[in-house]
Automatic annotation (TrEMBL):
This is glucarate dehydratase. Pathway: Carbohydrate acid metabolism; D-glucarate degradation; 2,5-dioxopentanoate from D-glucarate: step 1/2. Gene3D superfamilies: Enolase-like C-terminal domain, Enolase-like, N-terminal domain. It catalyses: D-glucarate = 5-dehydro-4-deoxy-D-glucarate + H2O. Its EC number is 4.2.1.40. SMART domains: MR_MLE. Keywords: Metal-binding. InterPro entries: DgoD-like, Enolase-like_C_sf, Enolase-like_N, Enolase_C-like, Mandel_Rmase/mucon_lact_enz_CS, Mandelate_racemase_C, Mandelate_racemase_N_dom. It comes from Alicyclobacillus fastidiosus. The lineage of its organism: Bacteria, Bacillati, Bacillota, Bacilli, Bacillales. It is an enzyme of class 4 (lyase).
Length: 418
C-alpha cells in the first residue's frame, strides 16, 4: 500500500460561548485543520491538527513530496522523514506529524479490519472518563447566553454539565481573574460538589510565590492535582517542595528530553499526554511507558479537539494501564462536529472507545464543507488576545487580571447560529 495524496481542509466550528484562558481566549469557535491521507487501495485515513488556514494547508501540501509513495504501515520511517531531530531544528513538524500518524493508524485499522487500539497493544478499559473542563466564558454573541464570570454562574454551569453528562471530576481553567477571586470560585465548586474531584489550571499565569500561596489555600480540598501553576521546571520544583498537592503539566514536559529531565530532577508528578503536542498517539504511549517505569501518573490532555482528535484520545486512553485520572476534553463546549452521526456522547462522564475499524469515525462531507465555508467567511482569530480587553496582552507571570465585576461587550467575529 502506498500514499497517493494528502488533502488538508481548514474548518471553524462554533462553541457555545467564547472560552477565556490566561493567554487570551477561544473566540467562540475552534479552528482546526482536517487531514485526509489517500492510498492506492482507496482507503482514506483521517487526521486533525489545531489551528489552520492557508499556511497550514500549504504546509501539509508541502509534505506530499516526502510522503507520496510512502507505506502508511512504516510509522518509524514516517517519523524520521518528517521529524528528524536535527532537521527539525530548522523546521519543526511535530504537530503535522501527529495528524499524519493519526491518518496512517486509521488506514492500518481499516486495512486490517480492527480498531486502532488493537494496533497499540489492546485496550484495558472500554470507556474513557472525562473531567467537566470549566472555563470562564464570555456571552455568546448571537444568543447572549453562556456567560461564566461569577462563582454562582460557574457552579450553575458545572451543575448543568454534571446533570447532562455525568461528570464527577471538575477542572477549572483559570489565570483570567486575580488569584484571590479564582480561589473563591474554586472553593465554591468544592462546596457545591463535596464528593467530586477537582483540579485547577491557571496556565502558568501565577508567579512562583502566588502558586505556593494558592496551593496551600486548597490543600484541604479533593484535588486531583494543581496543573501548570507557574512557568518553568525550576519554578514548579519550588512549588512542589512547599505544597502537598501533586503538580501536573501539559506545557513543560512535552518531549522525551524534558521527560528525562523531570525524572532526574522531579518537578512534575502527573504528565498530561496530548496526542498533538507529543507528535502522535504512539509517542504518547512510549512516554506513558517511561512514566510507568518511574511511577509517574499520566492523564490525557485536550488541545481543543473535534471528533477525529477525540477519537485519538479515546484510543490512547483505552490502552494506558497507568491512566489514573479522568481525561480532559473541550468537546462538550462545541455546538457541532464534522463527523458522521454528530458529536460523540458522554455516558456517566465517560465516552465509549470506538469499536469499528480504524479510528472509528468518518467525515460528514456536508459538515466539512459547511465549516470550511464558515472559515473562509470569518477567518481565524488571535488565540493570544481577549476580545473583551482590546489593549491587553498576556504576561508570564501575569499582573494584568481581568475585572470580574465589569459587564462586557466586545466585537467578536460572528458565530453563526447553527
Amino acid at each position: 500500500m502506498k500514499i497517493t495524496d494528502i488533502i488538508a481542509t481548514t474548518v471553524t466550528v462554533p462553541l457555545e460561548a467564547p472560552l477565556r484562558h490566561s493567554n487570551g481566549a477561544h473566540w467562540g469557535r475552534f479552528v482546526r485543520t482536517i487531514v485526509e491521507v489517500h492510498t492506492d487501495e482507496g482507503i482514506i485515513g483521517l487526521g486533525e491538527m489545531g489551528g489552520g488556514g492557508e499556511s497550514a494547508e500549504q504546509a501539509f501540501h508541502g509534505l506530499k513530496s516526502y510522503l507520496v509513495g510512502h507505506d502508511p504501515f512504516q510509522l518509524e520511517e514516517l517519523r524520521f522523514k518528517i521529524c528528524n531531530p536535527t532537521a527539525s531544528l530548522y523546521n519543526n513538524r511535530t504537530q503535522m506529524h501527529a495528524a499524519i500518524e493519526f491518518a496512517c493508524l486509521d488506514i492500518m485499522g481499516q486495512k486490517l479490519g480492527v480498531p486502532v487500539y488493537k494496533l497499540l497493544g489492546g485496550k484495558v478499559r472500554d470507556a474513557v472518563p472525562f473531567a467537566s473542563y470549566l472555563f470562564f466564558r464570555l456571552p455568546n454573541e448571537v444568543s447572549g447566553h453562556g456567560e461564566v464570570r461569577t462563582a454562582e454562574q460557574l457552579v450553575a454551569h458545572a451543575s448543568e454539565l454534571k446533570q447532562k453528562h455525568g461528570f464527577t471530576v471538575h477542572k477549572l481553567k483559570g489565570g483570567v481573574f486575580h488569584p484571590e477571586y479564582e480561589l473563591e470560585c474554586y472553593k465554591a465548586l468544592a462546596k457545591a460538589f463535596p464528593k467530586d474531584q477537582l483540579r485547577y489550571d491557571p496556565n502558568a499565569a501565577l508567579s512562583v510565590e502566588e502558586a505556593i500561596w494558592f496551593g496551600k489555600q486548597i490543600e484541604n480540598l479533593n484535588n486531583d492535582y494543581l496543573e501548570d501553576p507557574t512557568w518553568g521546571l525550576n519554578g514548579n520544583r519550588r512549588v512542589r517542595s512547599m505544597v502537598s498537592i501533586p503538580l501536573s503539566t501539559n506545557t513543560l514536559v512535552v518531549n522525551f528530553e524534558q521527560l528525562a529531565e523531570n525524572i532526574l530532577n522531579p518537578s512534575i508528578d502527573v504528565i498530561l499526554l496530548d496526542t498533538t503536542f507529543w507528535g502522535g498517539i504512539r509517542p504518547c504511549i512510549k512516554a506513558a511507558s517511561v512514566c510507568e517505569t518511574f511511577q509517574l501518573s499520566v492523564a490525557v490532555h485536550s488541545s481543543g479537539e473535534l471528533g477525529i482528535q477525540l477519537a485519538t484520545m479515546l484510543h490512547l486512553g483505552a490502552v494506558l494501564p497507568n491512566l489514573t485520572f479522568a481525561a480532559d476534553a473541550h468537546y462538550h463546549h462545541l455546538q457541532d462536529d464534522i463527523i458522521e452521526g454528530g458529536k460523540l456522547e458522554y455516558v456517566n462522564g465517560a465516552i465509549q472507545v470506538p469499536e469499528t475499524p480504524g479510528l472509528g469515525v468518518k467525515l460528514n462531507r456536508d459538515k466539512l464543507e459547511e465549516y470550511a465555508e464558515l472559515y473562509r467567511e470569518v477567518g481565524g482569530y488571535a488565540y493570544d488576545r481577549d476580545p473583551s480587553r482590546k489593549e491587553w496582552f498576556p504576561l508570564i507571570p501575569n499582573t494584568k487580571w481581568a475585572d470580574p465585576s465589569a459587564g462586557r461587550h466586545c466585537e467578536v467575529p460572528v458565530q453563526h447560529a447553527r
